[in-house]
Amino acid sequence: MPAVTAALGSWRVLASAGAATQGDLSAARAQMGFSLAWHIIVACLGVGLPALTLLAEWLGVRRDDPALKLLARRWARAMGVLFAVGAVSGTILSFEMGLLWPGLMGRFGQVIGLPFALEGIAFFIEAIFLGIYLYAWDRLPPRRHLLTGIPIVIAGTASAFFVVCANAWMNQPRGFTLRDGKVVHVDPWAAMFNPASPPQTVHMILAAFIVASFLTASVYAVAMLRGRRDAYHRAGFAIPFALGAVAAPFQILVGDWAARFLSDYQPVKLAAIEGVYRTGSHVPLTIGGVAGKDGLEYGLRVPDGLSLLVGYRSDTVVKGLDQVPRSQWPAVTGVHWAFDLMVAIGFFLLALGVWLLLAWWLTRRSGDGLLDRRGTRLLLALVALAGPASVVALESGWSVTELGRQPWIVYGVMSVRDAVNPAPGLMTGLWLVLVVYAAMTVATVYVLRRLARGTAIPVAPQEADVRDYPVV
Amino acid sequence: MLIDTALAVMWVGLTCYALFAGADFGAGVWDLLAGGAARGARQRRVIEHAIGPIWEANHVWLIFVIVMLWACFSPLFAAVMSTLYVPLTLAALGIIARGAAFAFRKASTELWQQRLFGACFAVSSLVTPFFLGAVAGGVASGRVPAGLAEGNVLTSWLNPTSMLGGVLAVLTCAHLAAVYLCADAARESDAELARGFARRAVVTGVASGAVALAGTAVLHADAPELFHGLTHRALPLVVLSAVSGVTGLGLLITRHYLAARAAAALAVAAILWSWGAAQYPAMLVGSLTVGQAASQPAVLSACLISLACGAVLLIPSLWLLYGTFQRADTPKPGHQSVR
Questions:
Q1: How confident is the model over A377-391, as pLDDT tens digits?
Q2: Tens of pLDDT, residues A101-140
Q3: Could you tell me if residue B312 is inside a domain?
Q4: How do A177-179 and B282-284 pair as beta strands?
Q5: The CATH number of the domain where B42 resides is what?
Q6: Which residue of chain A comes nearest to B337, CA vs CA?
Q7: Interface probe, candidates B58, B67, B314, chain A, greatest A C-beta count within 10 A
Q8: pTM, rounded to two decimals
Q9: Is B318 among the domain residues?
Q10: What is the ipTM of this complex?
Q11: What residue numbers bound the domain in which A383 lies?
């Protein structure tokens, strides 16, 4: 029982609520990082899956296609489970903002409160209509039922927008003045619509749709590889794959926009991403490598690459990490690798999209079915891989933005160390959270797998099953 | 004025959380006490049916309160969260376990899984309101000073007023749930079950009243400022709560289940507002007033305007939600195309 031992140990030093120890600071960072990394996957599915479900239901109703209708019901059941898990894991995050980072919230809570208030409203709408959509499936006529799903998609996307606005503020703190350490002249709208908001929110929302699409498609790709190639599985593969393939190229453009934004507004982060130590022109682009004493070592270098990417000219000056003292450098190797990984996976997803487009074009000419051509098995295997890969890209991208901001919690204004809760015993909280999340992960995966294998789908995805057998 | 409006809006959110989500927690308590798999099946079915579509929306009131707190009264949020982080972490874990397990149980088909997730759901429904009540007790008895983690990590919530708050919260939630479920059972034409819930509602109602009465002695000794406020400025609200509580019991006995819902809700709401009235304008007794904690006017007005716009969307949506599921439920044949 490490948790209990740690608890006793930390409670012995109750009197010392002066400053957080290094251990407690690390524990707080680990807990926040872990619970965010967990929630971000479920949240992406919460944003993207309703859109896929609605699409399937709409097509099913329009074509009166039983396979599509069944697909919509299956996805709706998974959506119900994922939304519940997402709602509670999101609530924990709002607790943790205060439990772990009261220094941030006490001082700047009022500055970033507005996007969270708006997010609360959006989440409310999402929860209300999700209840209606899931439980009133057979109380409403099909078209009206479809309509009740639309607010879920809009509100889910809006939630993502508002929450990422708050995160963007941590990168580009605006809308307040500090006078003698006190926050004055707060302009909540300027804080919310800070310069980092547009690139970050668009990047994140697209990521949500891409992750939800490729994860869903990968489930059906695996089933099809195992020989289940009926209309139901084909649709379950094709609808999300098509949506993801459309979004992938846009994501690359938006990613480029986000990186360019960094070169103007957060050059330290860009320097960490690319491992640029010294400011200068003719800066090469380094792929891979390890941060050494004077720069990235063992990486693959493209001469003048970064200068060309940033300013389209080989003599473009790129600011290096040397603009700030070494104590304010982010962890270069981690940020750099996370970024390269994200970009590599982004191009992999793009390639899959191009493959789909080519296959579609070829089959239009030859009249074969889209998935009957040679090479289909390889495509299916790659899409099966693309689901988990898109999650890896998501987590790496998020690591880039968070680790790249270190040591700051509010860029250039407040360090993580000054924000952490000085109360003793944060390590205990970390252990507890890890145990609870481990149990929740196992249960979520298990239940989702059960749902995927599920036998007959009851009339209303969430309700009728309750009547068919005693609930204990 | 602006500050008081923001405070009132937040308190309305807290009241809604207690009245709606509190009853969902209470339903979990009854789920826990419903008995074995066979004996408790009917009760559990009504409970599941009643809270299934609405608990997530009800839960959002908590997020609403938290967000209002940190946007409009950030120093209060920081002080409460940092000092009371132990019970708040436990409440947060309870919230996770309750919501996730409820969804998992619904998606499981085997008895042992339903038992496991059901037990998890039910136990966390008991534990979560207890810790939230303990947090309220810690704040109300003045054990949370302003600043970061300035209060004692343990005695801020392990104290007489917190224990009173915790027990009262659990009893109130159970009472509200039992009262609400009477009408749900009656609508499903299960008169026997409705009478059973009415019995439980009366028992928990009387118990809540008794604990509250005994609690005045605790408050007198442990939280004198709060006691003074409750027996002076907030006295009308306390009396209102007692009167509507007793009225509610009478309505239950005479089987006016819908009217009993209103009376029980009023009794609980009045208690919450009497706490607010007793403590006002202190937010943290002895160290932080509403005026000191409040954000700048620009923030308060931005939040209030956003919420007003949001309310235009939210109120009809909530109406639609409760309206859809509080009607007698007869799935219309003909709309079910897929088996």
A1: 888 899 999 999 999
A2: 988 988 898 999 899 999 989 988 998 899 889 888 878 8
A3: no
A4: unpaired
A5: 1.20.1630
A6: A66
A7: B67
A8: 0.87
A9: no
A10: 0.85
A11: 21-271+342-467
